[in-house]
Amino acid sequence: MVVQRMQSRLLSFDVNRYSTPLLRQLQEKARKRTSMQAFTETAADALDELDLGPKAKRVVRRPPPLLTIYVRQETEKAYNAVFMEELTVESFKEAVSLRYGTPIKSVRKIEIQTNSGSIEKVDDNTIHGFDEEDTFTIVLNYNKVEGTCDILLSSVR
After folding, report:
1. What are its GO biological-process terms (predicted)?
2. Which domain holds residue 29?
3. What angle, 0 to 180 degrees and rounded to 10, lies between the N-to-C axes of helices 21-31 and 2-9?
4. Which pLDDT score, from 0 to 100, does residue 43 have?
5. How far is residue 149's CA from residue 111's CA, in Å, rounded to a whole number?
């Protein structure tokens, strides 16, 4: 403490040159932790001081999908789940493009083949008519010249 006061007053004070063995011993003792401090401080306290403790993770919970349907291509053996968070054609396009790796913008039209064999354009009302866990076969017709994809769904009984 005496040395610190002297250092603050004199900028060019050489501690090693002018300090006595007693002052050096006091400085060394001040640098070392006492045994009482060692027992009272824990590793958690030290981490808190250093701000190195684990950070709390933010839990992101997605809402459950409104509708889940299962689709497969003719060449596939297993069905793939398609999750839709909204009952819209855009949500269906997004889900199918994620599942099959096609760009969303390349999907030109979506059609469904009814039980009578006629082909209808899929709109939001058609998707609202889908039941939970309906199964469909899906045909992805790619037009490489135009860079588009047409989707045809067929209901599986």
Report:
1. regulation of transcription by RNA polymerase II
2. 21-50
3. 100
4. 58
5. 12
Q: What is the CATH number of the domain that holds 80?
A: 3.10.20
Are residues 73 and 117 both part of a single domain? yes
> Considering the domain boundaries, does residue 142 fall inside one?
yes
Question: How many C-beta atoms lie closer than 10 Å to residue 151's C-beta?
Answer: 22
Q: Beta strands of the chain (E only): which ranges?
A: 67-72, 80-84, 107-113, 119-121, 135-143, 148-155
Q: What is the DSSP letter of 140?
A: E
pLDDT of the residue at 141:
94
How many residues would you count in the chain? 157
pLDDT higher than 80, residue 64:
yes
Mean pLDDT of 109-135: 93
Q: Is 8 exposed, middle or buried (0-12, 13-18, 19+ CB in 10 A)?
A: exposed
Give the strand pairing for 148-155 and 107-113: parallel
CA dihedral 147, 138, 128, 110 (to 10 degrees): 30
Q: Are 134 and 68 in contact (CB under 8 A)?
A: no
Same domain, 73 and 130: yes
pLDDT at 70: 96
Q: Which two three-digit tokens encode residue 88?
A: 């819209």
* Statement: residue 131 has pLDDT above 70: yes
